[in-house]
Design a protein that fits this description.
By secondary structure, this protein is of the alpha/beta class. The chain has a single domain, classed as Rossmann fold. It contains 9 helices and 8 strands. The longest helix has 21 residues. The structure holds zinc ion (ZN).
Length: about 220
């Protein structure tokens, strides 16, 4: 199984990718993990990646694709790509890299969720300044507002969850990643998952879709 999980920040695709990787016994290839592993192993590519990340810069498409090639495409048979491709350029790289090996993607799952739902999810995150426990003002509120259940510490907005930070991530997603939905739809690879449902329900639907992807691969339809 070679599939891509696509979706905006806050759609929960990372969680679903993790669960599906376990259920189908395939590799969960998240870009963040791949970068970390490449750096930890001291690979030449990893050092190049570190150079960008240490300076707070985005890793260029071309380098990202080379790392994914070495760490995933050339070394694992079955995988869920999570966070790659993120741009049209990366999607074209992926297509070419697979083609060169006589391979192809089996499917792309798009975790669909409206922006106001994303903003509600992401801006509601709180973290305990004292013990680091995570809360959500709507989905996982503390017993007493603003106070940690576990240690009585003060709850703060996570640094990645300010409206400004989220607005920036969403704008970038809209500009660079959203075009991939159309890209994969035209290739008849795209399947939509309603990501507004409860995580367990999303898991149930995702599993059904993945079984379907596997089935159509085996029957060649
Ligand atoms: Zn606490």
């Amino acid at each position: 199984m070679k599939v891509v999980f696509l979706g905006p920040p806050g759609a929960g695709k990372g969680t679903q990718a993790q669960r599906m990787a376990k259920r189908f016994a395939v590799s969960h290839a998240s870009t963040g993990d791949i970068f970390r592993r490449a750096m930890a192993q001291g690979l030449r590519l990893g050092l190049e990646v570190a150079d960008y990340l240490d300076n707070g810069k985005l890793v260029p498409d071309e380098l990202t694709s080379r790392v994914v090639a070495e760490m995933v495409i050339e070394s694992v048979e079955d995988y869920i790509l999570d966070g790659y491709p993120r741009t049209i350029q990366q999607a074209r790289d992926l297509e070419r890299m697979l083609l060169e090996r006589g391979e192809a993607l089996d499917g792309v799952l798009f975790f669909d969720i409206p922006e106001d739902a994303i903003i509600e999810r992401l801006t509601g995150r709180r973290i305990c300044a004292q013990c680091g426990a995570n809360y959500h003002i709507v989905f996982m509120p503390p017993a007493k507002s603003g106070i940690c259940d576990r240690c009585g510490g003060e709850l703060r907005v996570r640094s990645d969850s300010s409206e400004q930070a989220i607005g920036k991530r969403l704008a970038e997603y809209r500009e660079k990643t959203l075009p991939l939905v159309e890209f994969y739809d035209q290739k008849n690879l795209l399947r939509r998952v309603d990501a507004t449902a409860e995580p367990d329900e999303v898991t149930r639907r995702t599993e059904i879709l993945l079984r379907d992807v596997l089935m159509s691969r085996q029957t060649g339809t």
